[in-house]
Amino acid sequence: MNLTEKTIKKNVVYRGKIIVVRCDDAQLPNGKPCTREMVDHPGGACVLYVRDGKILLVRQFRYVYGEELLEIPAGKLNPGEDPAATAARELEEETGWIPEKVEHLYTMYPTPGYTNEKIYIYRAEGVREGTVHPDADEFVCAAFYPVEEVAKMIRDGSIRDAKTIIAVQRYLLDHSGR
Hints:
The protein is an alpha+beta fold. Helix content is 20%, strand content 44%.
């Protein structure tokens, strides 16, 4: 059975600095017309860095939730930028650590019901110390947390950021001895 929906016309409702909101005219697989609301987003990349049994997390205020969150370093892809370069750039900007290499773990679709955003999840390797230089509108505090403490914070709901949970769960799976 073919489940593909066809775009008839893309209708831009709002064009912002980061996102574009659309209300497209589309066609269902059975040929009937429909509308599809969506947020067009350039995507982002994040990076897990573990050193001596500790995970590097950044704490920052997230305006849309009105609270501070603990997350792995992450940021928006610039036009034409390779996601691996974004991950490495964000690790350095937010924490001062410079990876020799980043390994791709996953590409996740955080909210497929209304956005085309993709988040590329990486693991940092061969990391050396550099200099923190966040964006002008970015305020973050970076610190290392023991793996066991991070796992506990995921279990008790203190860490709610999906990309961080996925990256840490992958680390725990890789190191579970199975």
